[in-house]
Structure formats: structure tokens, C-alpha cells
Please model this.
Amino acid sequence: MAGTKKVGSTGRFGARYGAKLRRRVLDIEKKTSEPVRCPACATRALKRKAVGLWKCTKCDLLFAGGAYVPFTDAGKAAKRAITQRVTGDFLALRDDEDIEDVLEFLPNVDKDEEIVLDAKTVSTSDTEDLSDE
Model:
């Protein structure tokens, strides 16, 4: 019994389990089986070995990832935050209201240095005046 064009591999379920759940299974199976680039050698050779384990068939890189996709949205956000902290791009992580806290947190900012924030220049002496109020 082969899957049809519309329902794909979930045609094996027939009329059971409901259309929404069958659609979810179809989406997950498509994401799991599509070729993904290896982060080490950049070839489309990643294969899922187990739940959360992904292996490159070319360079034999084995790493932990998501259950159905090797790189999850939460993992991408965490990686972006880590690289911003490592490279020293602390202003990308700040809120506009918390500029005083950011300036205290930055290790390499002099007290009288000017910082450009969204086309608005703020000097560190100005923020000290705001914290005294």
C-alpha cells in the first residue's frame, strides 16, 4: 500500500488518527528525511542515527541535535547569544532602557567613551548622571 500524492507516507494510516495528526507526522517525516549540510565539511551528508543524534556519512562527525532536525530554533538562538558574548557584541543583547546596566557590565568601555545607539549618541558620563537621579 503506497502513499498517495496528497497524504504522502501517512497514507499507511488510512482514515485513523485524524487529519491533523497525520499532517504533523507527514511534516516531521519530511523534515527528518531531507538532506542537511554538515557543520564541519558542508556536504549534504547528515543522517539521523537515533533520537537527537546526527552523523555525517562523509567526515564521520557525530553530534547531538534536535529529535527531528539537527539544528533547532532554540539551539540557533543559544548559539547566536554565545557568539555575541564571546565576540564582545554586548550591545546587541541589551534593551534600550537598561543602558546603565549594560555599561556597568561591559569590561572594555572607558568611563568617558561615547556609544552610538540607534542613531542616538550617549556618553558614559550622561548615563552616570541619570543613575544619580
